[in-house]
Amino acid sequence: MERWASSAAFQKKVRFLTISVAGPKLADTYTKEYQFKNVLNGYIERQNDMPTFGQLGCQGFIIFDQAGKMVLPATSAFLDIDQKAFDDVEFQLNTLLSDNESSGLLEPGRRVQLTRLVKAPRLNGRSGTVTGFDSKSKRYLVQIDGYEKSHGIQPVNVMPLRQSAKNSSNKKRKTTGCGPGGCSMPKASPCSMNDGKGCASTGGCSKNKSDEKGPIECPSVGVRAMDEEHAECFLSLQQLQESRKPADLKKAKEAIEAHFAHEERLFEETGFDDGGKFSKTKSHCQDHRKILAEIDAEMNRCSSSSDSLVSKDFAYTLASRLGDHTKQYDTQYSSHMQEHYKQQQ
């Protein structure tokens, strides 16, 4: 925040404010540790004044306009999309600061991701291409992948994707081995989704028809039952990427849905979470519902569209989505469940 607050783009135009919910000591620590000079740093003194909408921080920023009206209750969360969350903040601020309709607009052809949609939540996370800007409605015209017509989307619901995101993400990803009992097994041959090789049930690799997309990791959480199910899910997604048939999407959904149900039963059986105010499993299970809803939306699109095939982008995105979900959420229960099963032995 200090970097933003001291930058030429925002220094005299935007006020950056942090509010500690743990008293003045933490606020003072932040000022010293992060060397705040241009960021206003405060704290909440009374318990009754605590926010009722939850704590943000890594979950996003709140943005107000110059009249004090809340424009955005939460920008994209760093915990969800990593560095792209900062791009989202900068884009939203630049949009507010634009002094005319053409200033700061995304150019046609720019790739974007939809976010924060309330009336059509099934489209959140979907990617698309900007085809123009409607100055009358002040909405971007976005052709969502898998749809023929462009949709009018408010700037607050659009997040630009980095131009080189595809290449940079491919460089960062590591190929892993998929073998019996899970993924990332040390003895398995290196294989990954859509890198020209497929994960075989024996731990070896077989040729894949497509290498258009970068590799998708087949993550391991160190719990054998979960790793086996992860491997099954990723194998079904590999088949979907090769065929793009709705029938294979249905099979992939069945594998993913069965895995989610088993996982949620294990939460209860092993006492992973008490389900309290800051429940570890609440957001985890909510993401289960979101992933299944995204699959349902694509299945509905296939059944009602002249093009009955699953879109290439969705087939890849679903595998990436499941991989990110595993790394973000499933790894949280890894040590707990490993310890639980050790005690049972």
From TrEMBL:
Question: Which Gene3D superfamilies has this protein been placed in?
Answer: Hemerythrin-like
By its UniProt entry, which SUPFAM superfamilies does this protein fall under? Hemerythrin-like
Q: Does the keyword Transcription regulation apply?
A: no
Q: Which UniProt keywords apply?
A: Iron, Metal-binding
What are this entry's molecular-function GO terms?
Answer: metal ion binding
Asked whether the UniProt record includes Metal-binding among its keywords, one would answer: yes
> Which family would the database say this protein is a member of?
Belongs to the hemerythrin family.
Q: Which PANTHER family match?
A: BACTERIOHEMERYTHRIN
For this entry, the protein name equals: Uncharacterized protein
Q: Which organism is it from?
A: Lotharella oceanica
Lineage of the native species?
Answer: Eukaryota, Sar, Rhizaria, Cercozoa, Chlorarachniophyceae
